[in-house]
Amino acid sequence: MAPAHRDLADIIITDELAKRASEPPDYLREKLAFRDLADDMADNPKAVLPRLVRLAMEACGAESAGISLLEHEVREFRWFGLHGALAAFEGTRTPLDYSPCGVTLQQNAPVLMKHPETVYGWIRSAGISIPEVLLVPLHLRRPAEDGGAGTLWVVGSEPGFFSLEHVRVLTELAAFSSVAIRMIQAEEVVQAALQEQEQLTREMSHRIKNLLAITDGMLRLTARTATTKEELVAKMSGRFLALANANQLVRRPFAHDTISRVGLQQLMETILKPYERVSTKGLDVALGDHAINSMALVFHELATNAAKYGALSRDEGQVSVGWSIHDDRLEVTWNESGGPRVCQPETRGFGSTLIETTVRRHNGTIRYSWLDDGLTAAIILPLSSLAR
């Protein structure tokens, strides 16, 4: 029976290995085993680690074996590929700074411990008794570069169980394990990249279809109101530029799973940059790629009208754009001042139609107020529609 409690120095007995007798090595058996593992690694790398752990247990005559992989972000080990008496603990997490595996990586050498449950309370709480455990470090790169990827370990059924021959075998298997882990990770990276590329292709196809639909609508409506080809070109050029600038904001980095969100403030600055005497103010709101295109068209049209007929057509004219959030709605106020007296037009041109249909498409509303020195437009949009 193990003592109730010991210090760490009392349970590390690695020095005893040099005093114990070792069985003669069976190199032929090892060669055949590694050859079979190499064949498995080429066909199915993920199946190699469980088989390798089982081979470690059989080669050492241990009662249990496993691999502890270090997850650096949370500073914990995760038990993987367990065989034997401890197989039920597959997936268990153990702390880096309070475990036999942590000691092994710290020493960067094989470690032999007796009854680690007398020091580590989490082992004792699980009701596990470990007469001896032999651990060797795993590395994915050079030891000085990666700080250790985990450990390969075997549990003996009685004190005095392991010898230097077991250390040699386990070290060889640990080196092979490291190669298998690198292959698994490389395969996962390739698969992730392929999935990322496929997703990006689908997204780009979808966005191109949307842009073509928007372009088709703009061409049809603009053609109805333009009297000359020069007027058609001038109107369409500005609208295409607004769409192009908006789409430059939609980025999808390969390192992430989602399109990087663009804020309303950044969109306003991009679309309104060509115009002087325009100020913007409001809490930033994340926009989806559909909303980016829509909002770009809306505020491009408002700015164009202000420059042609409104406040920006005079040197003293000003435009202020402010927005806030109320009850899951975005409320935007476009306010022109210092411009000529404007009246509500008798007929709606393409720009006004485009603004209203775009806002309605996002389940929003727009209300105009025609003032003595300018125009005020109040736009209300559900936040949920802006996320798309």
Topology:
Layout: H1 8-11, H2 27-43, H3 48-60, E1 64-71, E2 76-84, E3 93-95, H4 100-107, E4 111-114, H5 121-125, E5 132-138, H6 143-146, E6 150-156, H7 164-225, H8 229-248, E7 262-263, H9 264-272, E8 278-282, E9 286-287, H10 289-308, E10 318-326, E11 329-337, H11 350-361, E12 365-371, E13 374-382, H12 383-386
Describe the structure.
With 388 residues, the chain is an alpha+beta fold. The chain folds into 2 domains: 183 residues, Beta-Lactamase, CATH 3.30.450; 161 residues, 2-Layer Sandwich (Heat Shock Protein 90), CATH 3.30.565. Helices cover 46% and strands 21% of the residues. A 6-stranded antiparallel beta sheet has the order 3-2-1-6-5-4, with helices on both faces. Strands 8-10-11-13-12 form a 5-stranded mixed beta sheet. Strand 12 and strand 13 form a beta hairpin. Helix 8 crosses helix 10. About 4% of the residues have low confidence.
Low-confidence stretches: 142-146, 250-260
CATH topology of the largest domain: Beta-Lactamase
The level-1 CATH class of the largest domain: Alpha Beta
State the helical fraction: 40-55%
Structurally, the number of domains stands at 2
So, the CATH homologous superfamily of the largest domain?
A: GAF domain
CATH architecture of the largest domain: 2-Layer Sandwich
| Percent of residues in β-strands | 15-25%
Radius of gyration: 34 Å
Kindly state the mean pLDDT as a whole number?
A: 79
* Euclidean distance between termini CA atoms: 65 Å
Tell how many strands the DSSP assignment holds: 13
Contiguous helical run count: 12
Main beta-sheet strand count, sense and barrel state = 6 strands, antiparallel
Overall outline: elongated
- Describe the strand arrangement of the main beta sheet, using strand numbers: 3-2-1-6-5-4
Global structural class: alpha+beta
